[in-house]
Every structure is written in structure tokens, then in C-alpha cells.
Amino acid sequence: MRTLIDRWRLFSLRESAVHRGRTLASVAVMTVSAAFLVAVFGIFGSLTGSVHRLVDGLAGAATLEVSGITDSGFPATVRAETAAVPGVAAAVPMVRSVVPTSAGQTLVLGTDAGATALASVLQPAVESQLGALVSVPDGVLAGPGLGLATGERLRIGDRSVTVAGVLTGGELGRLNEGHYVLTSLAVAQRALGRADRLDSVLIVTEPGADESAVRAGVEQVVAGRAVVAEPTLRAVRTGNGLRILQYMTLMGAALAFIVAAFLIYTAMSMAIAQRRHTLSMLRAIGGRRRTLAADLLAEAAVIGLLGGAAGAVPGILYGRTAIDALPVALVQSVEARTAYSLPLYAIPLALAASVITGVAAAAVAAHQVYKVSPVEALAPVGVSVADRVPGWMRLAAATVAVGAIAIAVTLVGLRLGELVWSGLALSLFFGAGLFACWAVTGALVDAAAVVARRCGAAGELAAATLRRAPRRVWATMMTVFIAVAVTVTITGANRDMLTAVRDSIGEVDRVDLWVAARPADQMPTDPTLPPDTASRVAALPGIERVVEGQLAYATLGTERIILYGLAPGSVSPLYADLDPRAQAEIVAGRGIALSRDLARTLGVAQGDSLTVRTPTGERRLPVVAVVSYFSALTGNAAIGLEQMRAWFDRPGATVLQIDAAPGVHPAVLAQAVRSVVPPDGHVFTGAESLAGVDSAIRQGAAVSNAVWMIVVLIAAVALLNTLGLSVLERRRELGVLRAMGSTRRMVLGTVLAEAIGIGVVGGGLGLGFGALSQFFFDRITPDIMNLEVAYRPGPMVLGFALGAIGLSLLGSLPPAVRAARLNIIEAIGTE
């Protein structure tokens, strides 16, 4: 062990300290990649963890829950029916709804004395303040996060309640982050206008009872009027709704690690070049290849470990910031108040990914020297067999590239509809591009040399240098290639997707005015507008038409969806894109329209029948249409507005679509509409509605843009490393040139010409592959975002190619200046 430590200290630690710039660069890019991964885990761990804490805190000992299909709940009589099922020890009724109050968005909880059977986190606090709660008319117990004091009045909807006491304590503060009020069932029902309605019945079974038999009995008495499942179903539905964004961000983190691997590869190649004399001598005196390779891999593992550890803190900070920047429409679908919570596995996984990436990249670099004899290791760059790419390796790379492309295209053609298959197809496509480039390494190096030769006398020397180190040139070129390809793919695919989303949501921007209880960047799911709002708006002068509509979060099967109640004239694609017969069936309540992703999840197609659970019982509806429509959660469905009102006990409307009479300006009409809309209502134009959708999509695309910036940053550092490696490999050669009379300007021009050759070829290659990748991504988007995306090449692609050349030149400046300032005597003395 002592020998191992001494060897690592002398040959690895000392070299890392001497060349600390390269070491710090490697650690820095691994830090950025690890931070991104930790942030991704933190974001989604927070969203699902918040729901888990709320569910576990309220459910207590309950093993089953009867929950509402929509926010309208179900009849209160269901509680007595479930309590009578054999094996049920307690059936605890509950009202639980997040509503706007004078203290902000607040979770209102109402229950009765039976809640003591749950043994939940609320029980000790409730028992201690039960007297105060009972003695105060319309009294509530306020959570510690609301900042209320005993005796204060709190407005809930159009009613006011009195704070009878304030709950305090660690667990009570963590429950929904303290933003809740607890009261009796009757007070909660009156405050919310939900007489004889419940949102939940939590069931505690008798000791020794058969859980499956109890569940079957509960399902039988509920008879489709509510959802019967484990209490954790709420958290599962939240996770399902976030899986698209989670998948995209994890793919982005993986891409960041791939680019970081290229930088580690180039950094280790620099280390090998600088230590070639030492390594060859060690081999000559009996050093084993396995030992020397293990030392290099251990060095890479330490770099990965340091980078991963350093990335933990910035990853946590970025995750905390990103929680507040998530699309409002996405957070709106999460029942619990979101608070940052980092999963226990986040940092260990980030550390493991960093170490594995570093070791894998270093293993490729180590192969260059440790597979040759000591005599070959002493050979100049370009002469050793380690510097050349053998024919069998090029043939194998070409075979892998063709196979990967074939599998990727097949996966896209099969339209399997699973995110994992789409991700695999995209990964195979990118991998095929890299293997194809490796197969034609010689041609790429020759092309770079041809470009470099255009730079005059300095270019001639640069061309010769490029041809002597094909592996290094390939690695540098692939860095530029990936930077440009990722830039073209991400920016182009985001632009295509945003256009497709705009097209899929219909003509919302052509509607003159919208009225809803929520702002334009949120889904107008609740609360419903006052019953007379539509008639009052329609009576205003200048109004041509008012179309009512409803949206609600609902459970269909086990999926959390957005359910639309639509009327004739609606611009929603779930109605407007249907043929007249299907529209008539929807309005008449004889059919249902589904978004494509929901139809795929449920395993139904147009013409099939679908059972829909409602508070009034199960309804059997034929699927009259399947529509390509952007889904914020796991799908959308549409039925007639009148059926939505009757079946789900949701009178009124949550949104009004207003068309102005000819010649009436929407801005003028908006003032009149605001005068008859409740103060907490929102009036906005069609353009503002579209801008709200755009904003949500752009917020989601911010993750892709972050990946793009990380890739470009890592590419710049990698170029700095690889071109610095070129100077190190030719240190003696450059010294001889300077001794023979070559000017500093000539040496500077040589390095810059080399960078131009690599940048032009790598940038052009990345431009072409990026355009193909954008097209390929657009083809798999229907399986990810559930809508058709048309390929549209952007006008900025040439700018990206020029940017690649600029990036190459920028990365070449430090090593070029270093080469120009080379000390002749020291350079000739090297080796």
C-alpha cells in the first residue's frame, strides 16, 4: 500500500499540481455536469416528495382512500356506505381543497371526530386545541406557514372564518409547508360551498382483515362514483404527470456528461504526452502496463470524485432556484405546496456518474500508450502506432454506425410510444454520428489539413501537424462537432416544438377576449365563475358571442388528466378539429374525444368504448376522435359542457370565450367586460392567452438551453486543452523552428491555422449532422410530446457554423500565444 501511495504521489499528484490549469479545467467541467444532474434530481424529488409528505401526513394509518374524480368530489353518502363494508374499522370523511384565500393559496382541510382513528401528524395538535376550535363559531386552526394569529379573520372564497388557534411544531410545519387550515367538516363545506360533498374518505381496516376483500367491497359500494386506491396514488399521479419533463432533463444531463467525457479524454491525452518520456522509461525498467494504466485511471477517478463533490452545492442551489422558475401550469397540477427536497440518492448517483465518466474517458486515452512497447512509446508523435487508427477499428466503427442508425430508424418507425424507446433512438442516432466520424477519421483529418493549407506558409506546417496526430485531431474536431450539432438540434427542435404547440392549441389568439378565474399562464380549472357571469357579459353592447367552457383536473382510469367540457363554437382543438358528426356527438353527450397520448395510455382507439367514472356513476362513451394535442400532464379528454355540469356536479363555467361584434376594438370591450366580472376574475386577450402558453413552453425549454450553454462551455475548455496538447507534443519541433529563424508570428499562425482547419471541418460536419438530428428529433417528438412536429430549418444555422470557427479560434489563442513565447533553449532541451 505504501508503494502504491508513493507512486501515485510522485507520478500523478505531482503532475496534477504542476499542471493545475488542466486539472482544474477537468474538475470544473465535471462539477458543472454533476451540478446539473443534482439539480434535476432535486427538482423532481421536491415535486413528488412534497406530495408524499402531504399524503403520508394526512393518511396516517389509512390503507385505502376513496377520492374524488374531479375537484367537485362525490356525495357525502358514500362515507356511510363504505363504513358499512365488512373489515372497515373507520371511514374518515374529509374535505381537502387548495383555494385562494386572503392569506394566499391555502389547503383547506375539514374532517370530523373520526379522524382520531388515523393517528396522523395532526392528531396531537387537534386534541390539544379542540376546545378552542369548538368554542369559536366558524373557527379554524391555522398552519404555521400562513403567518396568522389567533382571533384574525380569514377570507375563504366569499366567506370569512375566524382563526381559533395556530398549530406549531416541526411535523406540522412540514405538512404542506404550513400553508393549510384545519376545521370541522361542516365549516369547511360551508366555506367552500360544498354542502353534502366530500373530497376523500380515508379507510382504516380492522386488524387481520383481508385487504383485497375490503377493497373489493368498497369498490362495489362506491360503484364508479369515486376513485378507490391506496392513498399514495396521489403521489404516483403527480410523478406520471412530470415524466416528460423529467425525461428531457435527464437526457440533457446525460449529454453534458458525454461532452465532459471528451474533455477528460483530451486532458488525459495531454497528461500522457507530457509524461511519455517518464512512462516509457518505467516500461523499459520493468513497469507493468496494468499498473501504469491503473494509476492513470485512479487519477481520473479522483478528478471525477472531486468534480462530483464540488458539483453538489451548486446543484442544490440551482435546484432551489429552478423550483421557483418552473412553469406555473405544471406546478398548478401538484396538490401540495412545493418545497425543495433533495432525494438521498441524488449526490451518490452524481458522484458515481462523475467517476464512471472520468474513468471511461481516461481508459480510452490510456489505451494509446499502454498498448505499445517501450520503444514505440519513445517515438515522436505520428510515428508510434498508438497515434494511428488501424483499419479494423475503422471498419468496426462503420459497422456499429450503420447498425445504430438502422435500430434508431426502426424504433422511430415502430412508434412504440414509450419515452425510454424514444430516448434510446435519439442516443443511438447521436452515437452513430460519432462512430461514423471515427470510421472516416483519415478523410476528416485530410479535409482539416486542406483547409489549414489555405492559410499560407504557416498553414503548410499546420497541415503536416494535423496529419501526424489523427486521434488528437479527431477528438478536437468532435468537440466542435458536438457543440455545433447540439446547438442546431436544441435551438431548431425547440423552435419547431413551440410552433407545433401553438398550432395544436387551436385559434386561441384569434379570440377577442377570454374570461377566467385564473391568469393567462395557468389552466382555468377552478374555481368556477359566478353562474350569472356569462349572461351579464353577453348583455354588454359590442358582444357578438359568448361561449362557455369548463376545465378540470380529473382521474380517468389511473391517469391524472385535464377534462374539458365544451360547447358549440369552442376553439379548442378537441372540438374545432373534429368533423361535424363528431362535434354533434360530443355536445349531445354521446361521445368523448381523447388526446393521442391518453388514447395510447388507455389502449383505446377511435370507435372503441370507454368507461368514465363520474360522481353520478359510471358512464360508457364511444371514442369519437383521437386528436394530436399538446398535453401538460398525461392527457386530455373532452365531453359536452352540459354533461360536465350534470355528471360531475360542476355548474357554471371556468372560462368564457368572447367574440366582439364587427368594428368593436377588443381593448375597449375589455374595460366593459371587467366591470361585470368579479374582482378576482381575469380578462385577457387571445394574444395574451397564447403568450401564456408560450411562456410555459419556454420555461420548460430553459432546461434544454441550459444544456446547450453547458455543452458550449465544455467545448471551449476542451478546445483549449486539445490545442494546448498540440503545442506540448511539438514543443521541441517549435523550438527548432524558432532556432532556425522562424518568427513568433509564424509559430502563432501555425497554431491558429490548425484551429481554423479543425473548426471549419468540425463546424461544417456538426452543421449537417445537427440538421439531420433536428429532423430526427422532430420525428420522435410525437412519442414524447404527443403532437406532430414539422421540420423547419432555421436561418441561424450558418451563424452557428461561423460560431464554431470563432470558438475554435478563441480556444486556440492561449496555446498559440504560449507557442509564440516559447523559450528556444528550454524547448530544444526537452526530451
Automatic annotation (TrEMBL):
GO terms for molecular function: ATP binding; hydrolase activity; transmembrane transporter activity. It is found in: Cell membrane. GO terms for cellular component: plasma membrane. Keywords: ATP-binding, Cell membrane, Hydrolase, Membrane, Nucleotide-binding, Transmembrane, Transmembrane helix. It holds the Pfam family FtsX. The chain crosses the membrane at residues 21-44, 247-272, 292-317, 345-366, 395-416, 428-452, 473-493, 706-728, 748-777, 797-817. PANTHER family: ABC TRANSPORTER PERMEASE YTRF, MEMBRANE COMPONENT OF TRANSPORTER-RELATED. This is Macrolide export ATP-binding/permease protein MacB. The lineage of its organism: Bacteria, Bacillati, Actinomycetota, Actinomycetes, Mycobacteriales.
